[in-house]
Inverse folding.
C-alpha cells in the first residue's frame, strides 16, 4: 500500500494514459483503505492491470521514489546510504497494512498520506 500512497498521482496518470483511460482502480483502492476494507484483491488487480498496460513488474516496479529499485537481499547492519535516525511512517499505523516510509531529504515538506491526508509520522529506528 505504501507505494500506491506515495505514487498515487503517477499510477493514476499511467492508468489514464492506457487503454482503460481511467484511474478508478487507484481511487477505489484508496477509498477501500479509508473504509477499513481488505484490499489484497484490489492491490493484485492494480498490479495485473499495470503489467497489462506495459509495466513489466507491475506495481512492484516502483520503490518509494517511483523508480525500479534495489530490491535485493542485504546484510543486516550494512550501510546502505541512509541515516539510522528518524524515519517517517504511515500515519494510519500497522492497521492500514501500509509499509510506506520516507527519509528526510533536506528542507522539504513531509509527504502526506493519500488515504488520510495526514503527514507521515516521524519515528526513530
Amino acid at each position: 500500500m505504501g507505494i500506491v500512497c506515495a505514487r498515487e498521482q503517477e499510477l493514476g496518470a499511467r492508468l489514464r494514459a492506457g487503454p482503460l483511460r481511467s484511474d478508478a482502480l487507484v481511487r477505489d483502492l484508496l477509498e477501500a483503505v479509508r473504509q477499513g476494507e481488505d484490499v489484497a484483491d484490489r492491490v493484485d488487480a492494480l498490479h495485473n492491470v499495470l503489467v497489462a498496460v506495459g509495466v513489466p513488474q507491475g506495481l512492484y516496479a516502483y520503490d518509494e521514489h517511483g523508480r525500479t529499485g534495489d530490491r535485493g537481499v542485504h546484510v543486516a547492519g550494512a550501510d546502505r546510504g541512509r541515516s539510522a535516525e528518524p524515519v517517517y511512517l504511515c500515519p494510519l499505523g500497522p492497521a492500514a497494512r501500509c509499509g510506506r516510509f520516507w527519509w528526510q531529504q533536506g528542507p522539504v515538506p513531509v509527504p502526506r498520506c493519500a488515504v488520510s491526508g495526514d503527514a507521515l509520522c516521524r519515528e526513530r529506528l
In short: The first helix runs from residue 2 to 6. Residues 65-71 have pLDDT under 50 and may be disordered.
